Every structure is written in structure tokens, then in C-alpha cells.
Automatic annotation (TrEMBL):
Domain of life, per lineage: Bacteria
GO MF annotations, alphabetized: ATP binding; ATP hydrolysis activity
Keywords, ordered alphabetically: ATP-binding, Nucleotide-binding, Transport
SMART domains documented for this protein: AAA
Protein's name in the database: NitT/TauT family transport system ATP-binding protein
Species assigned in the record: Roseospira goensis
Residues annotated as domain ABC transporter: 27-260
Length: 280
């Protein structure tokens, strides 16, 4: 097993947007480690000494090589996976398991084919204590309208395109009004044009709801386009090489991708990724 990668030397970056910079942290991660213990391969170190604070209302993207632990980190934050050591607090409370405060959007929509779209997005309510489906129906309709799915409530997943299915999955993650939204490469399976439109869609939803978002992606341009800050991770064991402030104006527009400032941020992240892989 290689030695843990040390953080790279600082690089110049401008500060984050003022509102996010002044907000209190909603996610606090201190010295987080995740080790998988296996009989066949011994200890597999997935995450090494992760330290990260995410502020209320902030949009943070995470990029890194395949297998660096990005999705593992999201599963830990969702309460679906135990960590080996360290400390994680969400909204000031120690993380102990799945919480109504946290919504998760998977890489695939994972909609139940025998349930209508409305029934799919209300599914989390059925697992909650002392919660009645009818109390959330109006919210479900409002959210479906917000993402452009008004009129599709009684349709089934097979009747919707991939992008529309993923919109329904976003509504399902938002149905309980979480403070933190985790998105694990949600648009990776979509074609380029649909992916661009979904990026605009998620920004529109974020700007209206101002949830705190942690977004995992393999796409450097997607990370720069969406985020206030981009967390660059090293190869396994996954450590944070750098947290880069993306000082681009909002609202973000697609033509911004061709700007010099956008290209400079993308190139900087690419250099950080290449440098961290060279150390592996």
C-alpha cells in the first residue's frame, strides 16, 4: 500500500461568493478515515484524513480519479455506510445513520417500475414514522411542477426519458425537505445535450430552494459550472488535494463554459488531478 498523499502546495484562487462565505457550516468532517477490512486483500484504505466544512446553502462539487472514494464519502454522509474513525456532524448533530435532514440522488434514477411517478416520489414518506402520505401530496405536486414534470404524475417510469426520470429522482430526494442534498454522479448516464440541460435545471432548483448541495462528478467542466467550491481528491486512499474556490458570477449560463475564466479554473483542476495521480 502506498503512503498517504500529502496536500499539494497552495495555488492562487479567489474567494467564494459572499453569502456562502458568511454562512455557518451545515456539514463538518474532521479527520475522517474509512478502511474496508477484507480476508482476501487485507485492509483497503478508501478515505484518508478527510477534513471539510460545507456551509449552509453552498454548492460543493467533488472530483477525483475513479476509485478514490467520492461515492464512499457520500454514502457515509447519507448515513448508509459507517466510517472507521474521525467525526462527522450534520446540522450540529453527530452523524449516526440515515436522517430526514439528508436527501440522496443516486447515479441511476432507481424508480420502481410498477409505481407511478407521484407514487415513486412519495416513497420515502411511507418509511417515516407518524407521517401520512396525504400530508406530502401537495408538496410532491409543487416539486414536480418545479422540475417540469407537471402532468406526468400518473405516468410510469418507462414512459419518461432518462432526464425526466432523473428529475423525478431529485423530487424524491427533496420530498422530506432536507437541508442537505447529496448527488452521486446523477447525470453521468445522460447524453451531452441532456446533461447540459440537467445542469441548468439543478442550478435553477438550487437557486430557488437554496439547499446545501454536495455533488460528485467525473466531469471537470460540470464541477466548475455548478459549484461554489470544487474539492479535488487524490487517488486511493482518497485524500483532499485541494479545495478550490470557483469565483464565477451567478446565475451561470452555458456560454460561460467558453470563457477564459472558466477555462482557467478547469485547467487548474486538471493539473491538480494529474499531480495527485503522479504521486500515487
Amino acid at each position: 500500500m502506498r503512503q498517504a498523499v500529502q496536500p499539494l502546495a497552495p495555488v492562487e484562487a479567489t474567494g467564494p461568493h459572499q453569502a456562502a462565505a458568511e454562512a455557518e457550516p451545515i456539514v463538518e468532517i474532521d479527520a475522517l478515515n474509512k478502511v474496508y477490512r477484507t480476508v482476501r486483500h487485507g485492509d483497503v484504505h478508501a478515505l484518508h484524513e478527510i477534513n471539510l466544512n460545507v456551509r449552509d446553502g453552498e454548492f460543493v462539487a467533488i472530483v477525483g480519479p475513479s476509485g478514490c472514494g467520492k461515492s464512499t464519502l457520500l454514502k457515509i454522509l447519507a448515513g448508509l455506510l459507517a466510517f472507521t474513525s474521525g467525526r462527522v456532524t450534520i446540522n450540529g448533530a453527530p452523524l449516526k445513520g440515515p436522517s430526514q435532514e439528508v436527501g440522496l440522488v443516486f447515479q441511476q434514477p432507481v424508480l420502481l417500475p410498477w409505481r407511478t411517478i407521484l407514487s415513486n416520489v412519495l416513497l420515502p414518506i411511507e418509511f417515516g414514522r407518524n407521517r401520512k402520505r396525504k400530508d406530502y401530496t401537495d408538496r410532491a405536486h409543487d416539486l414536480l411542477k418545479l422540475v417540469g414534470l407537471e402532468g406526468f404524475e400518473t405516468r410510469y417510469p418507462e414512459e419518461l426519458s432518462g432526464g425526466m426520470q432523473q428529475r423525478a429522482a431529485i423530487v424524491r430526494a427533496l420530498i422530506q425537505d432536507p437541508r442537505l442534498l447529496l448527488m452521486d454522479e446523477p447525470f453521468g448516464a445522460l447524453d451531452a445535450m441532456t446533461r447540459e440541460q440537467m445542469n441548468l435545471e439543478v442550478l435553477r432548483i438550487w437557486q430557488q430552494n437554496r439547499k446545501t448541495v454536495i455533488f460528485v462528478t467525473h466531469s471537470i467542466s460540470e464541477a466548475v459550472f455548478l459549484a461554489d467550491r470544487v474539492v479535488v481528491m487524490t487517488a486511493r486512499p482518497g485524500a483532499i488535494a485541494r479545495v478550490l474556490d470557483i469565483d464565477l458570477p451567478r446565475p451561470r449560463r452555458l456560454e460561460m463554459i467558453n470563457s477564459e475564466a472558466f477555462g482557467a479554473f478547469a485547467s487548474q483542476i486538471r493539473r491538480l488531478l494529474n499531480a495527485s495521480e503522479d504521486l500515487s
